[in-house]
Amino acid sequence: MPSPHFTLAEGQPVIDPSTSITLPTLGGGGLTTLGDTLLIETLTHFNRERIPERVVHAKAAGAWGEFEVTNDISSLTSAKFMNGVGKKTPVLFRLSTTGGEKGSADTVRDVRGFSVKFFTEEGNHDIVGNHIPVFFVRDPIRFPSLNRSHKRHPSTNRPDWTMFWDFHVNQPESVHALMHLFGSRGIPDSIRRVTGFGVHTFKMVTDEGRFRYCKFHFRPVDEITHFSKEDATRMAGVNPDFHNQDLWCAISRKQFPVWKLYVQVMEPEQAETFGRGLFDITKVWSHKDFPLIEVGKMTLNKNPENYFAEIEQAAFSPSNMVPGIAMTPDPMLQARMFAYPDAQRYRLGINYTQLPSNRAICPVYAPYERDGMGVHTRNYGGDPNYVRSSLSPGVPSQVTSDVRHTEPIERFAFLGKNEIAVDDEDYVQPRELWNRVFDETERKQWVENVSETIEAIPAGLRQAVIAMFSKVDARIGQMMAAKGKETSHL
Q1: Per-residue pLDDT at 205 exceeds 90
Q2: Domains, the chain, ranges and CATH?
């Protein structure tokens, strides 16, 4: 390949991109002018080369790969990328911490965002979830406050445990997610060995229009392992980009990470008596009652050639669904379906879907979404940009997702502030996690992890935290109180 010649952004040749055009003066100085297009373009681009980072999930690693179907589930969904054993679909993967900024450490205790974009022949499909199976809140209006409480204090500009716990004791539906966060799962030792959950309940729809509720799960083929808090803290100082480097180097060595994709499936008849856990993302579905069904495997096999272009500009949203997969009346899901694309419109511009990392591989014809900043296509030429034109070359699509499924409305329901109050049901699954999943070593470590975060918070708030976890299991409160007394004597 011949060596490329330096040019300006619009192609004009440049002799030396390292030298300004100046009029020399005595003493080694020089006068520059606005006529030095290379200098002006270089400086102005530098001032603009940072885009707004994500408010949450700013620090991330990513890679390209493929998804291969290993178990045909055409009886459950018409989504083509999930049907036909051996069927392969390109994917883009991104995993991030939640609270930290772009320069923060990888190995902090935090919920990881787990995002996969499938480039299918029916359009892009995104699974945008977390590395734990539940979330902190179930009312979307609390989402901004949740994240503010996990970030920097508006006065000190530092993370603040008082702020953190003040939020959670007043929104105790978060207790289940907190049990996961402060357990060993809270500090993965490698991106290659984290779990991924779609978290929300979705619908899978067949060609005939029959639907079932479902949840998506990614499980790594490698054993799931974690850092101790001591090793994580040490690594945050030694190499704050440890997870990023680990993923990159593994792919470079051709030790490609692999995850299996599974679904849990619930029949509509079962859903009628299942209760609020159907759409409540602070709760999980029992694997015993709703076993995992294998769908396929995802293999990451290609590092990005340019991180900014391919990963920083990647835009994921749970609103990206292909025919055969549909939304449900989960308020958090519906809010995310608006909020995520809106964040990308702010960060990347209205035409972010035309960027290479987000561009569909199937034909796209959306002439009513045109113009705006950053158009990278022919912008539909002279095709009509108004609906129901007899001159338009476009024709309607017939897709399974057009089938409407009516959700039952509660009797005597009314539109208003219908908060789901926290009750004993919210403590059942956290109690199961504590008693049946954690072993004694994990229990002691969990108490230590939480206790060290409440040592310096106000006494009343500290007691509120202990009281909240005592509702999960009385022994938790006892162990935390004992730990507090032990610390006060040191």
Answers
A1: yes
A2: 1-49 (4.10.91.20), 60-354 (2.40.180.10), 427-488 (1.20.1370.60)
